[in-house]
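Subgroup meeting minutes
Present: P.N., E.W., G.H.
Scribe: E.W.

1. P.N. recapped why we're keeping a running log of single-chain structure predictions: easier to compare across weeks, and new members can see raw inputs and outputs side by side.
2. G.H. added today's entry (467 aa).
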Amino acid sequence: MAREVSRTTFKERFHQLDQYLHSKIESGEWAPGTYIPSESELTQTFKLSRPSVRKAVGKLAEEGLVRTIHGAGSVVCDPAQTSTNLYMYWGMPSYEYETMKALIDRFNQANPHIHVELVKTPREALGASAKDGFQVSGKRTDLIGMSNTFFYQLVDENPKQFLRPLHLDDLSPFSKPHIRAFTHKGRLLAAPISFAPIVLVYNKSMFDAAGLAYPESSWSWQELLQAARALTRIEGDQTEQYGFSFSASPNRWPLFVLQNGGSFRSGDGDEPLTDDPASQEALQFAIDLMYKHKVAPVFATENFRLGELLFLREKVGMILTSYVFLEEFSGIDFEWDYIRFPGEVPDSGLSLATGIGISTQCEAVDEANQLIQYLISEEAQSYIKQHVCSIPVRTAVAEDRSLPHSPLAGYSYYLFESLKDNLLTVMDFGLSYKQLTELNQELGLVWANVASVDEVWNRLRDQWKRI
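Output recorded in log:
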């Protein structure tokens, strides 16, 4: 392609590019199915940056004139089969992004009349945009990838003003707790795609060096404490190695309460934070791990991810983390494994989940529903199982031993089956997102050892009764 471009302003050069692309397509010189020149070629010819060329091509896509195929380029569309463009926002960072991108590419190739663009978005920006109807960038928001915690936050804001109800014909093939995690007032507002239980991960090499038996789900908390004591190594004024790392994340510490038979509301659900000895005993045990027994770092309470970092650096023997984090274990040079977190209630567990909802801004609802149906199909769910450590939400796929799972998840992948329908998410606690946030903030005083669990329980209960 030869073309003279004068030394003009950026605006003029961009306009020249825009006119050039439109004229070639609208005149029929570039017939449907023809690939337009590459970004690098257009960049060199029109003396524009790659982002500027990408913007011009993106404009063509929004107009339905071209369709971009990942790794191949942009192809001219047939006017008789105009493509519907959908924009799906995905919170970053994310271990699942590459897998979701591959699935979107597969969907686009199988459905040439629909083009879905996966838009990377910082999680903080996505959360902050909720009150503005998800106006994250100049592009329309059609679909939103979200965690169950983000959906939980939307529940306080009335999610129906942001998300369209979904109408899936049959919900029975999917994990019940994670359908529940994206349901509000009896209506499913996002389709769960995958989930990740919280588990106890341990450093096998560290246990071997200490001559200890590996942890078992049948352990009592006293046995957990004994192992943590044996693994903790203090030299002088410095702790060289901890046995356990406690996390103040609201997706971690509640597991202590659940595994001890505790709860966050009364049995009839009318009153939050009732006098519950099991809950207070569980939280006191967590505090004692740090201050009384000194087998867990105190600073980890201020940094939700510090426990994982210490584990990767072989500075702690046991941590609570999710299946999602197992993605970090690629290439580490020590042996590890994981079990269900021990406790008094053997079939209780805590889980994270990822789902996708359709924004109320979306006008092509049928096409958006078609994408969601694909992502929960056996084909897409099997792909998820093979490529990420998170568990597909379609139960038959998750439990099918003939389907490969991510090798990073190791031999213990199927331990989630021991929890099954008894997994809970933060939505099941019976607290609003605002209440859980306030509880988590107040418990910061407990983790700092300047207030008791009983004091926090009573203060918040009295405060919420007055509202």
